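Many introductory courses stop at the sequence. We go one step further.
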Amino acid sequence: MSVRTKFIAVIVLVNLAILVAGGMIMPSLRPDSGLEPNLRGHANRISMSVVMDRTLTDMHVQAEMARRAMLEGDDPAPALTRLLSELEALNGQARFLPDADTPRVAQIRQLIGRHGATIRQLLKNETDATRYEQLSAVTLMLKVQAGYELAAVLEEDNAGALTRALKEFTHLRGQLGFALASVVGALMLSLIVSVLAYRRLVKPLSAVTGGLNAVLTGHKPSQSLQETQDEFGDIVRAIRKLQAQAEHIRRIAYLDPGTGLPNRNALDAELREVRRLRPIDGSHGLVLITVNTYANLRSGFGFRLAEAVMQAASERLRVLDALPVTVFRLDAETLALLVDRGIAEAVTRADLKRVTAEAFSRLGTPVEVEEQRFLLGLSAGAAIYPDDARDAEEYINVCIEAAKAAREQGFGQLRFGERGHTHRLRKHLALAEQIRMGLREGQFVPFFQPIVDIRRGKVVSAEVLVRWRQPDGRVVLPGEFIPVAENSEVIRDMTRAVLAQACRSVRAWSERGYTLSVSFNLSAKLLTPHILTIVRDALYESGLPPDQLVAEITETALVSHESDVDEILQSLRDMGIRLCLDDFGTGYSSLTHLYRFAIDRIKIDPVVSRAAAQNPRAAEIIRGMADLAHRLGMSIVVEGIENDEDAQRLEQLGCAIQQGFRYSRAMPEDQFIDWARRYESRADAA
């Protein structure tokens, strides 16, 4: 029985006079015929968006299957055919999206069109392993970007639909109230009629309105909605469909599909909520555990098994004995543990160490998936709010950088982040960009520090040292920018530019009748095949003979790249470049380096040379090193000479070739030749 029939029946039973009042108010009670289709239309569009999300996932799965088939030697054509079919289906589904939010919908269609064109282009051309990797990356990017926009469209569309429905029902409720007031005022309806009308009409309407409000605000309805065989029942069924779709959207937005854990969005929301509830005395800790072997698992065993391993690992962390924690999945290989004691107690670093130790212990035993056992390589970064961060974004970033530092130290390491790390990171990034701009504008120039033979009174060589000459005339020393350059990989471009300039300068000196060798520092970051191209180009462009170029390499760099340094250094020697072992006497000093790498020159570290003034044993060691170098046909250079006393002492020990501030600091090209000639003139006069 419809709502209208129920109401008329009550009026007829009380008094026929109600027909007059009923005739006045019945038109206002006629159900809005467009309301239910509107709600159903929104529900259908939401369903279509969910279908699109599944299609996006299927496209990425097919791309992955094609890539794996290619790698395993199988035929990828079936997967590619299904991928094209899914792409065509996706284009058709996009046409059923709502048009109310034109910019977002246009963005989704633009994403589908652009990435779809890229996919078709990749499939048109001859496919190889790289194109399948690109195809997988494009489908994944399309899934992530379009999925984000779909979620936004659905939330806004859902909110708009529910708001309009709520407005209509609020209006309907007002009309019903007017109807009841008219009946009571005109005919003095009895209490029984009022109670009956309330039970049959107002109460169900209130329940429906409350349900709409709850769904609109992202909550479950506070009371059960009955599916009656009338208009209210139709509305309740539409509300339940909307509620189910909204819940699905929330799961997509806040839950990781692989493990079922809350994701990065959920962690951000949780941190904001904790900060809102406890803005002053709230203290909690965050530990990020990186499963360093995840990438290898995914590459070697596939995405599905890698996700199964992560799910098994997350199950072990759901309940820890040390402290109550909430587990999140921050990204593919990172699990986050939010440690919160509540308002009563603050979280300390000792607490986070205990939590991390227990987590490492639980994850230390192999994880068994599909009758295979996998041992996980772990590292962790941690921080405490508000001690180490000012807001949620900085909080997570500090932990991420700490986790990266722990990973560099090796498996099983924990590093703590600290306040200001994000600021320093941004400062380094800004400096790296300034370095790139300086390279483009030619601001990095070579300075030359002379190396002299004090017995002969000759300048025999020079060491190239880079300087950053900024537009305002200020010269920046290497200690301020070299570490940033090495970490940002611009060290290669810097070496290429400065070495090319230095080689041209030395070549120009030779043409003016002043021939000497020049050495440059070969840092650990440069011990790659790229350095061969850099040196070869510098020699070719300048015309400098290779035997006038000396590559200085530290023993630390030799040890850190021991596996592939032989081939690189041998290639340099084959080009005619001479090799110098820098900072000899510190770090990993080993005589095997002298014959293994065919060293031409040894540089004694200033720490060792200064020790000779106080320690007779150090002096004898230097004398022995000098004698050994001469017997092996090597030259020996001592660094850090600062006064005449040092110079004479080292000369007596057999080290006549010296370098240091006693003679000169590093100087620009246009000053070097004049200084060298003055030095040799003074030596001849003496």
